Amino acid sequence: MTEPQSLIEISDLSMQFHARRKGFRRKGGAINALTGVELTIRRGETLGLVGESGCGKTTLGRCLLRAYRPTSGQMLYHQPDGKPVDLATLRRGELLPYRRQIRTVFQDPNSSLNPRMTVQQIVGEPLRVNKIARGSELHDRVAESLRLVGLRPEYMRRYPHAFSGGERQRVGIARALITQPRLVIADEAVSALDVSIRSQILNLLEDLQEQLDLTYLFISHDLSVIQHLCDRVAVMYLGRVVEQADTDRLYAGPRHPYTESLLRAVPRPDPRLRTKRRRLQLAGEVPDPSDPPTGCAFHPRCPYARERCDSELPALRALVPEHSSRCHYAEDLDLVGV
Hints:
- This protein is of the alpha/beta class.
- Helices cover about 30% and strands about 20% of the residues.
- It has 11 helices and 12 strands.
- It has an 8-stranded mixed sheet, sandwiched between helices. The protein has a 4-stranded antiparallel sheet with strand order 2-1-4-5, covered by helices on one side.
- β11 (about 315-320) and β12 (about 325) form a beta hairpin.
- It is globular, with a radius of gyration of 21 Å.
- It starts with 5 loop residues before the first strand and ends in a 13-residue tail after the last strand.
């Protein structure tokens, strides 16, 4: 059977959290972290997921890892033989083989590494938990994984405090790759690093993708990093995907006002460019996910909002091939890109 182009197909995915009664609150409410998410991750690509804090990016990544069980929807994962399996419905015992194939790199290398474990124990733990290797075989695989990320195997007996921030993140990447995964979810993987170190880690991720035929879901709020690394971009707002496109197309011509506002916030080092840019100021705050606005969730902050936006929820629709937007007036608005 020919392996399909898509690695994961997410359809109508929703995730609710129920807030408990606390203090003077009379009752708990449902917090809609994700609502009707539609997304496809293709084999071998890097898909960027962007948006403000609280928009649901990390929740989506944790649903894919099945750290959270989605409230509803599908997450079809295509196995190497082409057979699809719905990760959203699997029971705990059935998830083990898929957790070897879908791994994550966390944001903060300081808190994601156990300070009481050596590098050998940290990187080799997935092999022990999944009963893949032990003894000398485990030692050899940890050494090879460290070489792969640019660290010397002699370092495996050291503890995390002996490394710099960039080196700790390399240890985290080695741990993610030790089980030979197909999909790596990088959740703000460079945001906690110095600017001088970020480019090294980004280049390392690109090299590893080419060597190991990896697929990345790269979650970030830094659009300059997304532009450098990603093939396609999905923009999220209040738990929904509001725009999807190839990276070059989205940056050159956004088709949703929220995307335009994110792109306008990207700093430009050339003062001549700064004076020519039209700055889009967003009014108000991000709405409460437990009480979202009616109609388009972005309409209370949107400078282009009309009467229809207040009452009718826009669908995520294709405007041109490889470019979709959740805006009633996507074809009519003259939005400015980078």
